């Protein structure tokens, strides 16, 4: 045995031990913070980080993950968190965590400092908006549209001139553009009909044929040669005929398309009328628009908030995925790894269980489990599940259940959130001017269900207000008949429920909001403001139509006039071509007749000569 | 050039050193295994520990490692083929599977074609190489060493400044 060698090994082992002992947690903390910030695209800060290499235990006192879209807030933060990393997978560069104990979990917290993080140049990338972002954008548009709806301030004596000054009548510009397009198109056809080579080709052909004097042809050989030339010309004539037919088809279909383009005009005018009605804040008096006006902004606002959380979860999920889906390349000298079982087929990252606890902004003590957060669900064979719930001292509860499943052919994400038992006293049931009253009592329940399978999106958000009573006294006496009718109607309602449906299961995204008091409001509004709304709308319609009709007539006149002119030109052209081709045809027949005559004469002469020879 | 001279000198020094022939042969064979197989493998860590603990000639192990590393670069495709044959051999499947199931064995990365191919090849090569080196060292010491020392080129080499620098360097290093 070599004593020096043993001492050397002992020294090396000692240095290794000392290195792990003296390498400060701050050093590792700094590295993790940097890498996590790169992934998050905003600061990730860890306070009180601890790492024990021998037990592979990791912990921190506080973790803040800044929101890249608003760096003065955190997307979420946690309090004391502890977990152990499995040893063996680390040797395969895989991070597997059995159980994370996370306390003090909070969403959307304020930051003391700016969480902006300067991204390394090579890490910056463009992000495509996901389905949640697209849905949120469209639903946001629906909310702002509904916010403009006013039911009670409808007047039928609106000043249409001042309204029109605010409306940009787009149909006039569109008609101008259409007119220019049509004019160009008609000019093109004018030029095609008058400057094409068909007429000159046919004229040339006719001149050549007319130069042939059939009656003077005595030599059959010459007649046959002439006939050959004629047959070539006939082929050319057939080709010219085809060109004329094609030209006619194109001409007719193009004129039809030009005429059909006028059909867009009424819809452009209707859009202008709708826009003007919107500026005049004239509502649609139907159950759907009333439901949307009453509860749309609340329900869809909540909907968009939850969609924002889902979008964030999906974004972080996507960032956790590494490049492990890339196929393993067999390098020449790296050899090939044979896998004899799936024992080491771990994903690059897998947290099997997170025991999570925290407090919501509404002081609900939330606890629950998040299981199987992984970078590749196909390797874990398990979907990500979230089951959380909790209640505050007043029994207001929040329950969240989610499944993010990428195991099937199409990725499936389903989320159910129920927020129940929240007091409604001193709050308004709707931001709409139709129900401006606070509640004396009542409890609310909000539930959201979202299912996303591939690009198919189906969601429902329900709102239920139970045991409600309105505080009409604070609002004073009814100011008008509508208010009086509404008060009478809603005072009898103990429960109000509203449902918003957002889906694209049958085509483009649809947003529908209905409630159990829509019909009640519909009847009230129909009996009061419906006539005013209709009168005001009629005035606007008449004004818009009077302003755009001149342009409309101008375009229609252009189409009518130009179409008639072009058709006449084309008919003339077609007749000319056909006349010339008729001459060609006649000349052909004449020559064929002459050819036959000459052939017969030769044949007869030959027969007479033979008879003379044999004396028959 | 200096490195080449250094290692030739090291070889000659090792051959004529006080180390026994089996120590030189042992160093040569262990260095050969490290050289032929992928360096960062678990078995190589064990071999390095062995080299440090048992009294084999370290210089010869380093020399052998350098020589066979170059050779491995050319031989890797052959090791890959040999490893593929072993890992796909139906008779050995149960052995590989049970080894793969054990984390300790799995750490050796014997499931990799080049690792297993080169490791088994180097072990097989050790069987003739070890006695061959033993014989060579004995023969060298008995018959060749004295003659080599008399070669003009060796004398000339020993008279060069490079050699004196090298001698000084080795004395300083101990």
Strand and helix map with partners:
The complex is a heterodimer of chains A (616) and B (174).
Chain A: H1 3-22, H2 25-40, E1 44-47, E2 50-52, E3 57-60, E4 62-67, E5 70-78, E6 81-85, H3 87-91, E7 95-110, H4 131-147, H5 160-166, H6 170-194, H7 198-210, H8 220-260, H9 264-279, H10 287-320, E8 349-359, E9 365-374, H11 377-380, E10 384-391, E11 397-405, E12 412-423, E13 439-453, E14 456-470, H12 481-491, E15 496-503, E16 510-515, H13 518-528, H14 530-614
Parallel strand pairs in A: 7-8
Antiparallel strand pairs in A: 1-4, 2-3, 3-6, 4-5, 5-7, 6-7, 8-9, 9-10, 10-11, 11-12, 12-13, 13-14, 14-15, 15-16
Helix pairs in contact in A: 4-10, 6-9, 6-14, 7-8, 7-14, 8-14, 9-14, 10-13, 12-13
Chain B: H1 2-15, H2 21-36, H3 42-53, H4 58-88, H5 93-101, H6 103-107, H7 113-150, H8 152-158, H9 161-173
Instruction: Please tell me how large the radius of gyration of chain B is.
Output: 19 Å
Largest interface: A-B, 20 and 30 residues
Tell me the Rg of chain A in angstroms.
Answer: 42 Å
Distance between the termini of chain A: 139 Å
- Counted by DSSP, the helix tally of chain A is 14
Helix content of chain A: 40-55%
Q: What average pLDDT do the residues of chain A reach?
A: 81
Describe it:
The complex is a heterodimer of chains A (616) and B (174). With 616 residues, chain A is of the alpha+beta class. Helices cover 50% and strands 23% of the residues of chain A. Chain A has a 16-stranded mixed beta sheet that branches. The longest helix of chain A has 85 residues, at 530-614. Chain B has one domain. Chain B has helices spanning 2-15, 21-36, 42-53, 58-88, 93-101, 103-107, 113-150, 152-158, 161-173. Chain B is 83% helix and 0% strand. The relative contact order of chain B is 0.14. Classes of the chains: A alpha+beta (616), B mainly alpha (174). The interface between A and B is medium-sized, with 20 and 30 residues.
